[in-house]
Amino acid sequence: MRILHLIHSEGVYGAELILLYLAREQQQRGHQVTVGSMRDPGTPQTPFEQLAATYGVSIVPLRIAPRPTPRVRGALLSCARDLQAQVLHSHGYKANILLGLVPGAARPPAVTTLHGWTSSRGFSRLRLYELLDRRAIGRLEAAVVVARSMLRLPALQALPPARRHLIENGIPPRATRLADLVVQGVPAPPAALLQFMQRAPTLLAIGRLSAEKNFSQLIAAFAQARSQGGGAPQLLIIGEGPERAALARQIETLGLAPSVQLGGYLAGADRLLGEARGFVMSSLTEGMPLVLMEALQWRVPILATSVGAIPELLRGGAGQLVPPADLGALTAGLVGLLQASAPPGAAPADGHYSSARMAQEYLDLYETIT
Q1: Which end of the chain is more exposed for a tag (fewer CB within 10 A), N or C?
Q2: What is the pLDDT along the chain (370 residues), one digit of tens a residue?
């Protein structure tokens, strides 16, 4: 089967990595797989495109403004025709909108994966995109969510049952992923970060520095937990995003600069989990977070909010759950995490949450719509 994945990537985050795992698993099953990377004209090679190339995934840089104009839609369809694509698979609202505006008879069957869905308030360009996205997915042949809880979204409920599907994320075994990083030449974590983590018990958080990750509350809770629990624990947050400046000011205001670091974006950041006292996820919304599956594979103690598929991933006591946006509960959880000594049980990603299972379920879905 000839498959064209489409994504407009702003970096290398969970959705991008899941897409690469999926594409390579499909390639290994003998399918012809290409990832179309949509960016504005004139954009140089992106980190996602570079990683995909080194990962052995075929990339087509689509330098088209991701806007719903006839010219852009025409360029997208031209790419699909050139590749003789039999299935289009979009990841993200910009690709969804473009495909949703093309009549079904003018394109190959299309699937979208909703990796996570946030909602903005008020009137903004993002809010407009969200409204267009919800309308667009109704015009595609299938919509996939990565967490069972997402099936309750109103936009999914509006679809006929035969067109909404659950395919949970999966990742390769840890040993394979680490070997991949070596082959790709991804550098080891900076020595300064490792030295910071080895200086004192360190909690680790990984994610885009954006509002839905709720890192501002995590920092506030850490400040309280540090004063209550004694000792000199540390917090390291890995990621980049629009909240960086505000978070840096908060750290300075609370006098936490020596013990809290914003480590920036880091390829292969999950390698730091081996040095962490615990992993924390303070998100307000999530789908099925890749980094949480990685934390389970590393068997590090986990504290996470009960949103999205997190309760499903942490079932059976694999981690501690707290309500979202609850400063007191998050603070108490951090105190407990700093005192934890025993790791949780075996990683579920070694079984059900595997990239091999995920890839096969998508291939089975493609067969039903082609």
Answers
A1: C
A2: 999 999 998 788 889 999 999 999 999 999 999 999 999 999 999 989 988 988 889 999 999 887 778 888 889 999 999 999 999 999 988 899 989 888 888 999 999 999 876 655 555 566 677 778 888 899 999 999 998 888 888 888 889 999 999 999 999 988 787 767 766 777 889 999 999 999 999 999 999 999 999 999 999 999 999 988 767 899 999 999 999 999 999 999 999 999 999 999 988 899 999 999 999 999 999 988 999 999 998 989 999 999 989 998 998 888 999 999 999 999 999 999 988 765 565 555 456 889 999 999 999 999 999 9
Q: E strands within 122-272?
A: 142-145, 164-166, 202-206, 234-238, 260-264
**Superfamily for the 2-170+354-369 domain:** Glycogen Phosphorylase B; (3.40.50.2000)
> Quick one: which H or E segment has residue 157?
helix 154-157
Q: Just give the CATH number of 186-350.
A: 3.40.50.2000
Residue type at 29 in one-letter notation: R
